[in-house]
Amino acid sequence: MNAEIIAVGSELLLGQIANTNAQFLSQQLAEMGTDVYRHRVVGDNASRLLDEIKEAETRADLVILTGGLGPTKDDLTKETIAQHLQLELVSHGPSLQAIEQFFVSANRVMTENNRKQALVLNGSDVFINHHGMAPGMLVTHNQTVFVLLPGPPREMKPMFQNDVVPKLLTIFGGGKPVRSRVLRFFGIGEAELESRIEELIDAQHNPTIAPLASDGEVMLRLSAKHENKKEAISMLDHTEQLINDVVGEYVYGKNDETLLLKAVSLLKEQQKTIAVAESLTAGLFASQIASVPGAGSTLLGGVVCYTNKVKHHLVGVPQDILDTHGAVSEACAIELASRIRTRLKSDIGISFTGVAGPEPLEGQPPGTVWIGLSFSDREPFAISLKLTGERNYNRIRTVKHGFFQLIRLLEKETSSS
Amino acid sequence: MNAEIIAVGSELLLGQIANTNAQFLSQQLAEMGTDVYRHRVVGDNASRLLDEIKEAETRADLVILTGGLGPTKDDLTKETIAQHLQLELVSHGPSLQAIEQFFVSANRVMTENNRKQALVLNGSDVFINHHGMAPGMLVTHNQTVFVLLPGPPREMKPMFQNDVVPKLLTIFGGGKPVRSRVLRFFGIGEAELESRIEELIDAQHNPTIAPLASDGEVMLRLSAKHENKKEAISMLDHTEQLINDVVGEYVYGKNDETLLLKAVSLLKEQQKTIAVAESLTAGLFASQIASVPGAGSTLLGGVVCYTNKVKHHLVGVPQDILDTHGAVSEACAIELASRIRTRLKSDIGISFTGVAGPEPLEGQPPGTVWIGLSFSDREPFAISLKLTGERNYNRIRTVKHGFFQLIRLLEKETSSS
């Protein structure tokens, strides 16, 4: 079983937005064992859209279209599909009600063109939009399944997960499942990783081993094909062990377990609270922790200490440390981490100070960074980074290094207790 | 002149990353007046890649390929192009030197497979990679221009802007340019906006008016085709005026002037400093300001006050305000904004407190938010929002509303002074 994803919208071709929908759907389909062979993007143009639909239906079992279901004249996905499959568009009562309700609760006036959003393909399965207005649809034609989804990610994602996936599993029930597992690495480059496990990659066909790199992190995806779930899992376990024997020191997590999620879950498990003092990252680290639901049990808060005055007055870094060593220093990072910890009475204090760029600071080049760490049961310390990217790359990398350090330290706590 | 963008990499089809390269390149090409008709994504598979190349070259003047230039066995873009165009791959001295230098400066060992990255298409223009290793290439065949770029965005973007754009302008010099301008709206939905300017849209062909929606913001793109630059600009000015007459109150900026960039540029212009107190946003607002180069002249810092203790002890909100009104209240938002301003001696204090979700807080539903604002020359006040999204959507929307409020207030300062 294989799928293609067609995104519709001139805003994509004009570069106004990235096609994050295709990313999300590809992840979901991979988990279901469905191969995605192509993504395509076309503008709000009926004839080019029709070309893509015709090409896709000759090759794919499943064609997912996102976007073009809205109220405006540019939105023509369902009109194009209706014409191609010779299906009528009919008004869908529950969707119209939901749209009217949306305007009532938002205290806004419903304009006439919004009614168009309640038109659906005759005979299709209709999915009510619980986070917006345009409903989704599924219709089968000549053994190809077409799924039409709204463009905005926050409408599309829950609709796909809650309504479309169960429907697809029913329709395509018989496929031979692929189980996959992603091993996540930090601190090793893609080429070095592949070089070190070259023999393993060459020897393996099932499971396959595929290297992936993204945003300075490297991953390996192991994929096993087997009808028996237990057997597939044991094949993955075996391959994972072979990889760990060679490069296990760089592995920090699996699957969706990002550096952020791993760090927060260790904090929660160990019931530890954390306080932050952020200079160059200016709240990015704390904000990422707060993006995880339930973060309130571990994040107490902290200080965005962008200036030396704030470092001194609000965090309590002694003025002579700032005068003697400067803000971009090991000594300052240690003071920031220790003092924010004692000031907020947290178990852990972490600090970030450095030069994001593009300009040097205190005579130090962009990319010079210190991360300070203070735990109640050990001496505070700081590590240094020499980053080579642009301003926001350096800020993001700094935050990632912070989470990586935290994971390493928290894992030691687990293993020593 | 028209272009197609082909991204190569199974990590895209597996949903590991989004195709942000296509977004960036589309923006750049639109600015050059080049129409992009299609984006395509294929995996690390030579035969499917070859299909895409063959299809694209029959339609497009310019075919840009991103990804698949790396050191691993999966990387086969240039091999596929070489085979299709019957060109040899030859080692490129300066690229090999740059790659060797990269390993020396990173203090890492160069593995043999990295040499592969220095192979280039014989006879092509080669672009040295200043932010990574794999060089880019440009080669013309049967009147189609092929451009090969590395996949990582931080390598691809500067290479395209600095090296590829000038080359393309030389090659395609004669085209009829499109000038476009984006008007950015906040506080009005896409359907309502289009409905209110429907007559204008129907009447206009040059400039065209296209509505775009992204992440809760709505934009209109005006595009004028004219050989004379001055004339095109005056056509855009005229259309912009017609739109402003109807819905000008919702316009906050133009082109790349996001809410963030507009707010920061007003702060800088007016030489105002700002301090923040962030509860539900937990540093997101401050961190966004700090993402703009030179933010240090306006952002002093602030407090991430995730708990009531931190609101009281570090910001100075009176305990009886927290006991009587709760943290999610107008009174608390005003205290936070006023006290962070006086504590950090800034011109402006801004605060965010509310319920991100998914759980209610203090008996108030997710999406209940207060934004406090304190300026030295006026009474502090707070506005309330009722958001309807998920946790991180609510946090991001809150930050956007914060920037919008700031823009409105700063614009009043400008007009009253």
TrEMBL record, chains A, B:
InterPro entries with a match to the protein in the record: CinA (IPR050101), CinA-like_C (IPR036653), CinA_C (IPR008136), CinA_KH (IPR041424), Competence-induced_CinA (IPR008135), MoaB/Mog-like_dom_sf (IPR036425), MoaB/Mog_dom (IPR001453)
Transmembrane segments: none
Domain MoaB/Mog residue range list: 4-171
Pfam families per record: CinA (PF02464), CinA_KH (PF18146), MoCF_biosynth (PF00994)
Stated family: Belongs to the CinA family.
Protein's name according to its UniProt entry: Putative competence-damage inducible protein
Gene behind this protein: cinA
